[in-house]
Request: fold
Amino acid sequence: MTRPRIDPRASRTEQRVASGENGRRRYDLSSRTASNPIGPPRRDPRQEWAASLIDRPGRRRYDRSQRPVARGGASNVEAARVGSAAEAVSTEPTVRIIEEPAFLVFAFVDAPGGRLSRFDRQVLGGARLLADAGGGGGAVVAIVAEEIDGLGAAGADRVMSLPTNGSASARAAALRAAIETHAPRHVLFAEDGDAADCARRLSVALGEPLFSNVEHLTARQVVRPNRGRRAELAAAPPRLMTLGEDRAKMHAGAPGEARPLEFETAPSDDQAILSVEIIPGDPARLALSETDFVVSAGNGVTDFEGFRELAALMKGTPGASRVVCDAGLMPRGAQVGASGTVLAADCYFALGISGAPQHLQGIAACEQVIAVNTDLHAAMIERAGLAIVQDAQLVMPALIKLLKERQS
Ligand SMILES: Cc1cc2nc3c(=O)[nH]c(=O)nc-3n(C[C@H](O)[C@H](O)[C@H](O)COP(=O)(O)OP(=O)(O)OC[C@H]3O[C@@H](n4cnc5c(N)ncnc54)[C@H](O)[C@@H]3O)c2cc1C
Reply:
């Protein structure tokens, strides 16, 4: 569709009015034209304010959300109710239901700590892309070891639980049985940790090639680096693939149904593994780049004994801002930020840290940020999902007391 072209000369001529006595050209620029003699409708701000007045006792309150307000008869309260009901209907997410999937795409979900990680969401997003290929009709099946929240929102239509004794070989054996039964078109893994391990075991067990470390994923093509990154290898999406981190978008569309897909498999008898037990490391000794949870002190912290006690009780790895490290109050290795350590932690607890750009660069990947600061307008408070506007020296002992009570 093309827009009607405006001829500026013609519009100018249309606006010309009879000249005054001195013969000078005069124009009426009030937007009234021969075709629209009234001009644009005039706004009456008083009427607009009156219409958005909320009928409540006490102080006058106005609803300026620009929801359509019913006029003539209906009170503003009713109108607001109608508006909010309509909004509720329109904003309710519609769950995508695929009753009879044309094909299946398996997405192996690692979920460390029982929670979907960013990478897990990317794998599910990549699987969604493949399931929607060629007109759609495919369903994404999330392969999990335990119950996990948020799989539907991350794009899963089905969830298959393959409980194992925790060993990668047992998981691969259970997954192999599921693949042989359901014959998925694609099986997608993260190129990371247990998922990558399981993918390689499965590739050997099935005798099928694995297209590892996909860096570019589309519905028709997968690309990975080759010959030490001097070349690229492209192919049509094969059955077994591992996906590199940050190489696929997370699902942002309608949530999937995440309906359980029953699958019974005999527990694998893995003679090589005698016992599987996760031994947690000492958070205080973990490298900042490796840890999931960092409790960090800034210039607003003066009680460092309390800070270390709190970090130990919260099972977090202690971190600090540069100012604190420069002052020798914390070791240089604890510095978080552009010239310190860039974190990959899930959660960052910042005590008395302003949130300078160099510091914020170090926590860019942290999903959850909690800030304690006396300044409501500190950049760290803005970055945080949860903020406590209070003296850190008061918050720390209160948290220590609470944690000790819970432990006893
Ligand atoms: C090239 C370069 C590289 C840098 N790299 C880094 C880096 O890697 N990491 C880094 O951290 N910095 C880095 N910096 C320094 C950075 O710019 C800031 O100076 C530093 O991060 C500030 O640290 P801070 O927030 O702890 O201190 P401040 O800026 O002094 O902020 C203290 C905060 O604590 C709050 N506060 C005060 N009292 C209390 C209280 N009682 N309770 C609670 N809150 C309180 C204040 O409101 C304030 O927000 C770099 C700077 C340069 C120039």
